[in-house]
Amino acid sequence: LLVVESGGGLVQPGGSLRLSCAAPGFSLDYYGVGWFRQAPGKERERVSCISSSGGSNRYADSVKGRFTISRDSAGTTVYLQMNSLKPEDTAVYYCVLGGNWGQGTQVTVSS
Questions:
Q1: Rounded to whole angstroms, how far apart are CA atoms 103 and 105?
Q2: Cα gap 2→110, rounded to integer Å
Q3: Each residue's pLDDT tens digit, 19-71
Q4: How many Å apart are CA 86 and CA 3, to the nearest integer?
Q5: Positive or negative, the Cα torsion across 22, 49, 74, 19?
Q6: CA-CA distance, 60 to 27, in Å (whole number)?
Q7: Which of 56, 63, 86, 91 could connect to 37 by a Cys-Cys bridge, CB 3.0–4.6 Å?
Q8: What pLDDT is stored for residue 87 in this prediction?
Q9: What's the distance, CA 90 to chain centroid?
Q10: Nearest partner of 21 among 73, 90, 69, 59, judged by Cα
């Protein structure tokens, strides 16, 4: 199962990004999906996760109220909408599903 993240980039503080997670050729409907991040010199942190039904979402305290995890109706993609970004959100963001990790996408928040 190949997991692919996209949507990272450079954004100014207060800006927004939307990350996408997909597994080409597979439906994500049957998987719980998690987003993690790792900043240089820091441990990997779970940012958010969504249940396979989409009915249960969880967020790290550091991102509550700013990030939103969701699924598309086609069952192909899980999104992480990130608003009001802060410099401390800078990290490589990883998607994981079925125990499979993507390669990560870099998010840099800087003026």
A1: 7
A2: 31
A3: 999 999 999 988 899 999 999 999 999 999 999 877 789 999 999 999 999 99
A4: 26
A5: negative
A6: 26
A7: 91
A8: 97
A9: 13
A10: 69
